[in-house]
Amino acid sequence: MNIYRTVSLKFILLLAASVLISGLLVYVIISSSEKINIFTIIIFLINTSVLVALFLEYKNIQEQRIENLIKFSEVRGYDFVKKPSNNEISQFKKFKAMSKSLLPYGMHAFLNLFTPKKSFEDDNNKKPSIVTISTTIPSGESSATYYTQIYKFEINSDIPVFYLAGGYHFSFSNLFRTKNIFKGIEELKEIDIQKFNFPKNKYKLYSSDGAIKDFFTEEFINLLNSGLKKKKETIYIESNGKEIIFYTMYKRHTLQGMDFFINLFRVLIKSLNI
Fold first, then answer.
1. Under a CB-based contact definition with an 8 Å cutoff, are residues 127 and 77 in contact?
2. What's the angle, vertex CA 70, arms to CA 111 and CA 14, rounded to 5?
3. pTM of the model
4. Rounded distance, CA 42 to CA 246, Å?
5. What is the pLDDT of residue 191?
6. Alpha-carbon distance 51 to 17, whole Å?
7. What are the backbone dihedrals phi and psi of residue 112, each rounded to the nearest 5 degrees, phi first?
8. For the chain, what is the total number of helices (H) and then of strands (E)?
């Protein structure tokens, strides 16, 4: 079994069939002189059957993803918890900017926690703790739920406290409730990003630590740029002085993506002036 598989061909075909049949049903109803005829009933029943099959296949995909995550954890040396406790997730809530942006008004949940097994730990290749946060954002009478994976690395020495925020965040300030985020980092000052060689208009940097000016190396910025170009992502980074978290806003990665970002973040940390 391929543990990296996420969406089945069956699901895609059912979704396409549902869209086509729904469109046909609407067309028949609009164009027919009779409100209901036998053809309309047949199309309605077929569409209902397809929708039921689509729901069952979606449920199967979700169950398969959990099975794949469990297999991934076993192969990569993690303990896996589908629904972590408040105590288990407290380690992530220490990051103020992340908490303000992804945990609005209680409309959130922590899912799928990966904790490195000590027997698999390697000082040269530190494993991150990983958790997924679901964030529900109201939009009129409806709402939308987004998923963000957080990668947290422990650092063996003191580092500057900072928040490196992606430009995507500032393009959709209403969506992310920018005011709340800045309440979480009000003790930090905005640093002139032009002093560094970060991608133009991609990031904003906040820190009150004078050591920040020598913290980001040219190698770090080049690696960050190359990772962004390869995955077309904007990465958010936050430090609380002892740990660093990385995430791409409202993105839940495939298992291949998890491998890619774990390795990228590992290399990024090694390139910092620590």
1. yes
2. 80
3. 0.75
4. 51
5. 84
6. 9
7. 50, 70
8. 9, 9
